[in-house]
Amino acid sequence: MVAINIQPEYGYVVLTAVGTCFLGTWHGMRCGGFRKAAGLGYPTPYADSAMMNAASAEQKHKLYLFNCAQRAHGNYLENHYVALTALLVGGLRYPLLSSAFGLVWSLGRIVYAVGYTSPTKENGKGRLAGAFFWLAQLGLLVNAGLTGYNLAF
């Protein structure tokens, strides 16, 4: 049997984890703004090629930005559960390191989303400015793996 003593610093991990959940809400609100600007009703998940082809140049750009916001949100959702799980597990042994990786991950996700919806970058390439979230996510995974290793051995 292994006893786990949770350090008081684990509170930072919990606060960081809650912050990542608020970040998901922020993503959803951003998508709502882009949806409204594009004039797309619910439940349309993306502007398809038929909509894009029928739109004026200005409307096409709004639809494109909505699609970019949706994709940034989708990418966030695809990665959130991995980062959140690793944050909470790794924080059991290394709470400050885990929280720091979580904060950098969150900042990267913000930069990624804002860059993805940059009106001056083609093909969503503005997202690359926030790609450093991948390094933070790797750090979270390694940290969680080390925590598991230390518990097992």
UniProtKB/TrEMBL annotation:
<dbReference type="InterPro" id="IPR050997">
    <property type="entry name" value="MAPEG"/>
</dbReference>
<keyword id="KW-1133">Transmembrane helix</keyword>
<dbReference type="GO" id="GO:0005635">
    <property type="term" value="C:nuclear envelope"/>
</dbReference>
<feature type="transmembrane region" description="Helical">
    <location>
        <begin position="128"/>
        <end position="152"/>
    </location>
</feature>
<dbReference type="GO" id="GO:0004364">
    <property type="term" value="F:glutathione transferase activity"/>
</dbReference>
<dbReference type="Pfam" id="PF01124">
    <property type="entry name" value="MAPEG"/>
</dbReference>
<dbReference type="InterPro" id="IPR001129">
    <property type="entry name" value="Membr-assoc_MAPEG"/>
</dbReference>
<protein>
    <submittedName>
        <fullName>Membrane-associated proteins in eicosanoid and glutathione metabolism</fullName>
    </submittedName>
</protein>
<dbReference type="GO" id="GO:0005783">
    <property type="term" value="C:endoplasmic reticulum"/>
</dbReference>
<dbReference type="GO" id="GO:0016020">
    <property type="term" value="C:membrane"/>
</dbReference>
<dbReference type="InterPro" id="IPR023352">
    <property type="entry name" value="MAPEG-like_dom_sf"/>
</dbReference>
<keyword id="KW-0812">Transmembrane</keyword>
<dbReference type="GO" id="GO:0004602">
    <property type="term" value="F:glutathione peroxidase activity"/>
</dbReference>
<keyword id="KW-0472">Membrane</keyword>
<feature type="transmembrane region" description="Helical">
    <location>
        <begin position="96"/>
        <end position="116"/>
    </location>
</feature>
